[in-house]
Request: fold
Amino acid sequence: MKLVLDVLSGEHRPVAVYNEMLFLFDSGATTPVWCAGLPAFKAKYADAQRMKYKFILSGFGRSEAEIYDFLLNTDSHKAKEFLSEVYSIPQFVLETNGNSIMWENLNVAVTNRVFGGVHMILPYTMFGGMTLSFVQDIYHAKISIKSNKAVKSMFVNLERKYNPKLLKYIYSQDDAIS
Reply:
């Protein structure tokens, strides 16, 4: 199975236009993050359910020391700056040319923190067991996703060391395990 997404014209990073949204494919991210606010998220994914835990937004220009300090003081007044609500999308689908890949119960951190003008960050970890490539052709840059499975399962790992209501990371099921 192979999906090919066109990269937004003029972009020098893997940002694809899909279903009237901009997706950044990010090799440094560990979880999907919606960056366009809760109202826009609910408009696109009305069937998504709010989870009982929150995600720690460790990126977005934060230092390791800032994150560590927050984790030691999760009840501080700065919690809103670091925590994000998590919603589960029952079926998140990417489809091109009749091929599709569906992630079941995709957990997404939903925030208002703007990141590069994209709607959603898709982390490298989402594509476990797949081949993900970014072709930087001058005239037609594209993102290619190859997978031997059409349905992927998502798992969560809660941060038990600091606070069991915080999400440590989300990752995709490895094809070798399934």
User: Anything to note?
Assistant: The first strand starts at residue 2 and ends at 6. The chain has three helices and twelve strands. Residues 121 and 156 are 17 Å apart (CA to CA). The chain has a mean pLDDT of 80.
